[in-house]
Structures are given as C-alpha cells and as structure tokens.
From TrEMBL:
Organism, scientific name: Grantiella picta
Domain Trs120/TRAPPC9 fourth Ig-like: 16-125
Cleavable signal peptide: none
PANTHER family linked: TRAFFICKING PROTEIN PARTICLE COMPLEX SUBUNIT 9
GO cellular component, one term: trans-Golgi network
Entry-linked Pfam families: Ig_TRAPPC9-Trs120_4th
Name by which UniProt lists this protein: TPPC9 protein
Length: 130
C-alpha cells in the first residue's frame, strides 16, 4: 500500500500538493505468504516523464527528500507488515512521478538479485495558495 499525504494511491490517481509543503509518504509491505521474506532494500526515486520515452531522474534542484529515500527491511514475518515513512518537498511546480522499488538484498542466493517495482505514483506540485 502506498499513501501520499494520507491518501491511498494507485496508478490511476494524481495526487496534488503545494510547492514548499512537505508531503508525507507511507509505504506498507504486507507479507501474504506462509514464510518470512527479506532482507529487502526499499528505494523511492522521483522523476519527470517527458512523454517521449525519456525519464529525468536528475531532480535535486526540484525535489528533496525529508529523511532518506532508501530503507532497509531485515525480515517480514508471515501475515505481518512493515511500514516505512518519509516525506518529499517540492521546490518547483510540475508533474512528477515516484518509482518505488523493493530490491532483494540477500547475498547468500545463487540467483541474481531481483526487483519488485510498484506502479509509479503521479504527484502534481502546484503553486502555494495565497
């Protein structure tokens, strides 16, 4: 589950926020299997989509994270969840997207590391209300 500014998000919803106001993020990983899962690294990467196949990830002048954009998850037990909190601060107006990826972080495996990518979250930063 992904919550942006307290609202549940999916790929069909555009969340609006104000430039200069921190936007709370919450990502909840629920283990619905019969076995513990982990360790994982959860990474959140903002980008702009230029609608021509180009994604701009070089946004350090437009967006900043309040806290870290990467969280490490040791293990999630069966039927339990793990929740991670952060915040984004938008410095300019525009349409932005947030890639959220879970990277399997287990070096004892013989298989290559795998990624679980959630649908991108669409956030529209608007001018502050005067």
């Amino acid at each position: 589950d992904i919550l942006v500014d307290g609202k549940v998000c999916d790929c069909d919803i555009v969340v609006t926020c104000q430039v200069g106001d921190p936007v709370p993020l919450q990502v909840k990983l629920t283990n619905r299997s019969k076995h513990s899962v982990g360790p994982f690294a959860l990474t959140m990467m903002p980008y702009q989509d230029y609608q021509n196949g180009v994604h701009n990830y070089d946004l350090q002048d437009a967006i900043t994270f309040v806290g870290s954009n990467t969280f490490y998850i040791d293990s999630v037990k069966p039927t339990k969840d793990s929740v991670y909190f952060g915040a984004l601060l938008f410095l300019y107006t525009g349409d932005f997207y947030l890639n959220i990826k879970f990277h399997e972080d287990n070096c004892s495996r013989e298989l290559p590391l795998s990624w679980l990518c959630l649908p991108s979250v669409h956030i529209r930063a608007l001018e502050p209300v005067a």
